């Protein structure tokens, strides 16, 4: 059973997230919070495997809460819920220890997939979030974008063929188990490849690696219904 905490200052959003996750018999909602401070305290008390946090909350933001949870309860994976227009916050959260990013207006199945992936010790970057991050980086200007894409391609070129393949799957939002099935290997082998990819790219988490994959252009475009 995957133990999950939900934190959002809007009761309706919390109810919606709870309703979606409750459709999966393998997920148990152990606590809810309306602000980041309470979320951190409840994570310390209940030790859930996954905390689903709104990226912006009163008192303590989701970003600050994610960083504190990552520091004090590293066994709890954090998924950030965001909306369009919060790209700066997403970029901040990428460096704060969050393992997953989802758009609130996304498909309900994405929420369950993300929770299961993060509970698995993986990371989940919604294709919509990845697209927003890359688009936001592009807004800094064509020259800066070309420079970032060139740098990303150079970093990716330093990977082995198998590591590039694993990175492309990370960019597509696949969990370790899904990648293992695609490659016909055991999950332990995938974990070893992921660790190597993170080290070679010089990033701290899989979500940040997924952004590099998108910048380098090695992620297949999402299906039409993902736009």
TrEMBL record:
Stored InterPro entries: CheY-like_superfamily, NreC/VraR/RcsB-like_REC, Sig_transdc_resp-reg_C-effctor, Sig_transdc_resp-reg_receiver, Tscrpt_reg_LuxR_C, WalR-like
CDD domains attached to this UniProt entry: LuxR_C_like, REC_NarL-like
Keywords recorded for this protein, A-Z: DNA-binding, Phosphoprotein, Transcription, Transcription regulation
Pfam families: GerE, Response_reg
Cited Gene3D superfamilies: 3.40.50.2300
One BP term from GO: phosphorelay signal transduction system
Location of 4-aspartylphosphate modifications: 54
HTH luxR-type domain boundaries: 152-217
Entry's Gene Ontology molecular function annotations: DNA binding
Domain Response regulatory stretches: 3-119
Record's protein name: Two component transcriptional regulator, LuxR family
Organism whose genome encodes this protein: Actinacidiphila glaucinigra
């Amino acid at each position: 059973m995957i133990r999950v905490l939900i934190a959002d200052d809007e009761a309706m959003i919390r109810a919606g997230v709870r309703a979606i996750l409750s459709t999966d018999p393998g997920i148990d909602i152990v606590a809810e919070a309306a602000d980041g401070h309470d979320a951190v305290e409840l994570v310390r008390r209940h030790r859930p495997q996954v905390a689903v946090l709104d990226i912006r909350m009163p008192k303590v933001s989701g970003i600050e809460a994610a960083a504190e949870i990552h520091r004090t309860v590293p066994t709890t994976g954090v998924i950030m819920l965001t909306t369009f227009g919060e790209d700066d916050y997403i970029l901040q959260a990428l460096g704060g220890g969050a393992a997953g990013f989802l758009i609130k207006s996304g498909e309900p199945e994405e929420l369950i997939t993300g929770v299961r992936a993060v509970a698995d010790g993986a990371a989940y970057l919604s294709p919509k979030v990845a697209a927003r991050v890359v688009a936001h980086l592009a807004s800094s200007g064509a020259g800066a974008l070309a420079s970032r894409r060139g740098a990303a391609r150079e970093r990716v070129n330093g990977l082995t063929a198998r590591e590039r393949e694993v990175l492309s799957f990370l960019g597509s939002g696949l969990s370790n188990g899904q990648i293992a099935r695609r490659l016909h290997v055991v999950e332990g082998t995938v974990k070893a490849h992921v660790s190597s990819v993170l080290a070679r790219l010089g990033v701290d988490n899989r979500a940040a690696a997924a952004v590099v994959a998108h910048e380098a252009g090695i992620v297949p475009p999402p299906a039409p219904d993902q736009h």
